[in-house]
Amino acid sequence: PLVLGIETSCDETGIGIVRGRTLLSNTIASSMEEHARYGGVVPEVAARAHLEALQPAIDAALAESGVALADLDAVAVTSGPGLAGALMVGVGAAKALAVSLERPLYAVNHLVGHIAADVLDLDAHASLSPDRPQGKLEYPTVALLVSGGHTALLLVRDLTGDVELLGETMDDAAGEAFDKVARLLGLPYPGGPEIDRAAAAGDPAAIAFPRGLSRASDMAKHRYDFSFSGLKTAVARWVEQREAAGEPIPIPDVAASFREAVVDVLVTKAIAACRDHDVPRLLLGGGVIANRRLRDVAIARAAEAGVEVRIPPLSLCTDNGAMIAALAAELIMAGRAPSTFAFGADSTLPVTDIQVAEGPA
Ligand code: ATP
Ligand code: MG
Ligand code: FE
């Protein structure tokens, strides 16, 4: 099926077009710069930006793929989770498009969309994806999704029917932690790339920052859950004490030690999930995957554990419309009925709701 996907859950306006598992176009407009002076995504600003970016993004995606609106077999949209106001813009646009074209509409889960990014056949785009093993996504797989808005560990037995949430963050998302620590070090937003750059010249073992929810007692109760707010506070306290003592802040060492703490916890828990469930595959997704240290540590420790790591190209790891179109295409190929229009934006949509408002067959 030829599917156009609309993604507006956060600050990216993503329009993707796929034909089955073939990627035809993936247009992304981000309002990231508009949020920079606030140090984080401002929901109202994001929603307004989607409204302005949607139509040009749809036009660009159609032009890039050489597809006409009338050729489409279905429209797909992210229903949640995400920022309610931002989601609503995409949902409204998708309903209008589906009605006017008289095409079925598939309302899907953003997190499961991140996993669906890996079903796309990228042979025509091999350069996009140096770390990605060839061949298709196999089941079961453990997925670690890390971005500015979420940090989740999932067990995927079937993309269209069986996705289990093993654990998630109890407070800040991993990307959010990068952004907050960057801010307290006086580095600009988004903080991930800034911390990464500063860390390159630092010693990851310089400061022993805490690994959240990793003690034996925590691992019993929160084996797959994450917590980054304690780490953020530890960095803040360390920096304050230095400043109070009138000593300079070794930013590279702080950045490298902080990054190591985040990476260590993420990878340790992901590999534990693979081992516990006897799953030899780990899929990584989300914008924090841009972190080279995270990729390297994941690949190295997975190899020791006999686990294959799959990393989609970065343009498919950050929020995008192609993954939403890809998930809808999988649902269609699995014979799933389209969504009714009885759905809206669900900011807390659980990952087990892969498709929302599925209509009668
Ligand atoms: P969502 O949670 O809906 O996916 P988002 O827009 O916040 O929303 P992404 O766009 O996928 O998430 O990722 C942005 C986040 O990734 C930011 O928090 C940013 O700091 C972080 N990030 C980007 N590059 C790096 C990096 N090299 N290292 C660590 N974090 C990074
Ligand atoms: Mg983003
Ligand atoms: Fe996302």
Could you please describe the fold and organization of this structure?
The chain has helices spanning 32-36, 43-65, 84-101, 110-116, 174-184, 191-199, 216-221, 229-244, 251-276, 292-304, 314-317, 322-333, and strands at residues 2-7, 12-19, 22-30, 74-80, 105-109, 141-146, 151-158, 162-168, 281-285, 308-310, 355-356. By secondary structure, the protein is of the alpha/beta class. The structure holds adenosine-5'-triphosphate, magnesium ion and fe (iii) ion. Adenosine-5'-triphosphate binds at residues 9-12, 82, 147-150, 175-176, 178-179, 190-193, 196, 286-288, 290-291, 318-319. Pfam families: TsaD. Residues 23-325 form the Gcp-like domain. Belongs to the KAE1 / TsaD family. Its EC number is 2.3.1.234.
Number of helices: 12
Name the helix and strand elements from N-terminus to C-terminus, one letter apiece. EEEHHEHEHEEEHHHHHEHEHHE
How far do the termini sit from each other?
18 Å
Please bin the fraction of helical residues. Answer: 40-55%
Q: What's the overall geometry?
A: globular
Write the layout of secondary structure elements.
Elements: E1 2-7, E2 12-19, E3 22-30, H1 32-36, H2 43-65, E4 74-80, H3 84-101, E5 105-109, H4 110-116, E6 141-146, E7 151-158, E8 162-168, H5 174-184, H6 191-199, H7 216-221, H8 229-244, H9 251-276, E9 281-285, H10 292-304, E10 308-310, H11 314-317, H12 322-333, E11 355-356
Parallel strand pairs: 1-4, 4-5, 6-9, 9-10
Antiparallel strand pairs: 1-2, 2-3, 5-11, 6-7, 7-8
Helix pairs in contact: 2-3, 4-12, 5-6, 5-8, 5-9, 6-9, 9-10
Bound molecules: adenosine-5'-triphosphate, magnesium ion and fe (iii) ion.
Residues 10-12, 148, 287, 318-319 line the site of magnesium ion.
